[in-house]
Design a protein that fits this description.
homodimer; alpha/beta; Rossmann fold; 6-phosphogluconate dehydrogenase C-terminal fold; 6-stranded parallel beta sheet; 13 helices; globular
């Protein structure tokens, strides 16, 4: 895809689903000269080595970032402050520091106080993933045709933003640049609240006296199983997301609960017209998502193919 | 699959996703001698004829049921009382009357007062479907390896229950017999509440001032798009489900809201341990569903295949 690498030396801190997918695609398409991988767990680092995800493997993050032109933090967002403190003295002047975290305002707040003035902060968030985690979960096409949001500060170096844009395009993404606080509100709706709700209903269903868990499992195909996919996502990552996007999450949750109270009232009073009207208008949104190329149009996501 | 048909003459009232799937499979495997199809809409009836789903097509439901050994009501559950009133004088003595409705107590309450004493009521509910509706949405393998719940009264004729069991096995289903009220509580959890919540969040997301609908659509791949599938289900069918399973839905919704309030409080007060613990225990349920053969183990339901 590129004749010369976008970054001579890339450092990935954390090598889970996202980190390993970046590594696989960047190597496949020659986007970088070499990849240094750092993670705190010996086991994960060994696994990354066995999967041949990079060129160097470091338990010491200070060694990993040394000489890197671009450092991408791919750990849960609760770790960023500590990571920034550990890497800052060792960053190459002019290096780009980026990340893949699902929240962005907190990421800036955690990183900025530690980073030296001579590096460029370009926070990023690829809207891509699966319910699986760890270095084995990655695959090189994860970012294809998905959005990656960059949330640089207004004062950011335009050339650094341009390089990250090129890099993510190389990984297969479409790019949009937006303000970090706006990002956090948008993602609260499209991602954080759906995850919290999915985690919640799966929890509710497993805690009933009258309905056995075996029944929930057997008869899950009627809708519930969709929620269990999201509720199987990485618990540490998601704990940190909620702790670091508290304001937007609580605000959107308030709206969700108000709306649910209205539907609940309609059920209680038998207001069929209100229910019908509500259930009708929600159909169009899915059509829009399918038309935007962000979803399959196959029934049941294609998992139960009509023609086998 | 069978050497002689289970029913000489089957009548399907309503020919949407479920009715058409029954018709396609029953004909494919010779489960019935002939199929009479009835629906109130000329357009739908013409479409059923064009798709060659049956042997006879009737706008008049009284004509359709005449001589049928088994009548399966496949219309929204809000219609059952009227359907029962219309068909009862014309049912063949000894006929089985069944249905595919997603609630069962209300179905019995609606049907029983109208049915003559010489027919057998065996209510049924196949736990199968997609977000699509209408006669074009059906396919013959819809019921394969899915559960079908039968909820006959304690006084029901065992032979009639046995015949419906044979029929649904012929359609590909696994069978469980349970009490109608228990059915309604189980399905409130595994199906009705998930649908109400999905409809609700999609509604909430489309009503925000600060986040444009175009942004919700673009960045939906982060979780939200899963919910839009369920929220694209047939509005009439779902309106009727909520109106006819009010008690169980309101009870389960109360539990859901209590649990959500606890998670909300944990987010507000930064209780990471509570969030982590909750997010961890929900993973096992999905594993159980996959092991029970009710879900794919492919990431993202297989819609974004790693290997293309």
């Amino acid at each position: 895809m590129t004749s010369s690498p976008i970054f001579e030396r890339l450092c990935l801190i954390g090598i889970g689903l996202i980190g390993s997918s970046i590594a696989l695609r960047a190597r496949r398409d020659g986007l970088v000269g070499s990849i240094a991988i750092s993670t705190r767990s010996t086991e994960t680092l060994d696994r990354a080595r066995a999967l041949d995800l990079g060129d160097e493997y470091h338990l010491d993050v200070a060694e990993a970032v040394a000489g890197a032109d671009c450092v991408i933090i791919c750990t849960p967002v609760g770790t960023y402050s500590a990571v920034a403190e550990a890497i800052s003295p060792h960053l190459k002047p002019g290096a780009i520091v980026s990340d893949v975290g699902s929240v962005k305002k907190s990421v800036i707040d955690q990183l900025l106080p530690h980073l030296p003035a001579n590096v460029h902060l370009v926070p990023g968030h690829p809207i891509a993933g699966t319910e699986q985690s760890g270095p084995d979960a990655g695959f090189p096409t994860l970012f294809d045709d998905r959005w990656c949001l960059l949330t640089p500060l207004a004062t950011a170096d335009p050339q650094a933003v341009e390089q990250m844009t090129l890099f993510w395009k190389g990984l297969g993404s479409m790019i949009e640049v937006m303000d970090a606080e706006h990002h956090d509100r948008v993602l609260a709706v499209t991602s954080h609240i759906p995850h919290l709700i999915a985690y919640n209903i799966v929890g509710t269903a497993s805690d009933l006296e009258e309905v056995a868990q075996s029944e929930v499992i057997k008869f899950s195909a009627s809708g519930f199983r969709d929620f269990t996919r999201i509720a199987a996502s990485d618990p540490v990552m998601w704990r940190d997301v909620f702790l670091h996007n508290r304001g937007a999450v609580l605000e959107m949750l308030g709206r969700f609960s108000e709306d649910l109270a209205a539907l609940q009232k309609a059920v209680r009073w038998g207001d069929g017209d209100l229910l019908f009207e509500h259930f009708t208008k929600t159909r169009n949104i899915r059509r829009g998502i399918i038309e935007a190329g962000q979803e399959t149009d196959l029934p049941n996501f294609g998992r139960d193919q009509p023609e086998e």
